[in-house]
Amino acid sequence: MALSYDQVAAFHRSGYLVIPAFLSPETISSLLAETHHLLSTFPLSSHPLTRFTTGDDKEDPNTKHISDDYFLSSGDKIRFFFEPSALSTSSDSPTPQLLYPKEASINKIGHSLHTLSPPFRDVTLACNVAAMTLALGYTDPRVLQSMVICKQPHIGAAVPPHQDSTFLYTNPPSALGFWIALEDATKGNGCLSFKRGSHKYAPVTKRFVRLPQEGGGVTTGFEALGEGESAFPRGETPEEQECEGEYELAEIPAGSLILIHGNLLHKSEKNDSPNSRFIYTFHVIEGANTYDQRNWLQPSPGSDGFSKLVDVSG
């Protein structure tokens, strides 16, 4: 499935593109079955009960992003991260306690479904995905992370406005998100919303990196871009912002795909509904751009980097 000229133009104009019926009902069922199998079989007894937060939560700006080894070493693994509100601690029991069944408590599963889970690998490392990236100007597209985001009923947390290139920075920026609804994504269960066209004027100003921790070890945090680090993708000239603009909801049925420019501002609200909002998302970067060791996500030791979508050897 290659993108048409009109689709490419629409993506560059808006910063995102909705492609209906990207996955067949059979493929959706296969991915959901795999997801529920993973949720039901991961061992809780050996899990560190790691919470997931974005680290720039508007409700609690002092909340740090998860920074333990379970998270930092998850780039080549399938690991499970809990909703913050699914866990409770008290002075009587400092160890986090689950408030819900484990299957209903997970925020996301990541970050290497595209290499370790056959159903997700088949969807991700596919010819139609490669064709889309080439149509958008990539020459050496690499998949570097993949996740199922569960957005659990009643507790699925809001995600504040952000740009994907902040978390997956290359110099110059090149992140491209593939966001696939495995269930209907609606206003009620926390669908995405976008600030249309913001990729044209909103620079990447910071990046999410590994930082040395006091007393040894590694933590994570945000750092301002340094000298020589680009705020916009190669060949894209920033435009002046004409107006503040509103976020537009993107309600989509299961099986739809949204392509998301790495500079585009987007967010989602809390899921207050009784329905989950399972989605599968993966990100692509340009392999020819610089991806350095400061980034939180690193390729497997001894590997030749992130997963190639096309053969560029010849």
Would you spell out the secondary-structure blueprint of this structure?
Layout: H1 5-14, E1 16-19, H2 25-41, H3 69-72, E2 78-82, E3 87-88, E4 97-98, E5 106-111, H4 113-116, H5 118-124, H6 127-135, E6 141-149, E7 159-162, H7 164-167, E8 176-181, E9 192-194, E10 206-212, E11 218-224, E12 248-249, E13 257-261, E14 266-268, E15 279-286, E16 307-308
Antiparallel strand pairs: 1-13, 2-5, 3-4, 5-6, 6-15, 6-16, 7-14, 8-13, 8-15, 9-12, 9-14, 10-11
Comma- or semicolon-separated keywords:
7 helices; four-stranded antiparallel β-sheet; eight-stranded antiparallel β-sheet; 314 residues; alpha+beta
What does this entry look like structurally?
The chain has 314 residues and is α+β, with helices and mostly antiparallel strands. The chain has seven helices and 16 strands. Strands 1, 2, 5, 6, 8, 13, 15 and 16 form an eight-stranded antiparallel sheet that branches. The chain has a four-stranded antiparallel sheet with strand order 7-14-9-12, with no helix packed on it. Strands 3-4 form a two-stranded antiparallel sheet. The longest helix has 17 residues. The protein is globular. The protein starts with a helix and ends in a 6-residue tail after the last strand. About 3% of the residues have low confidence.
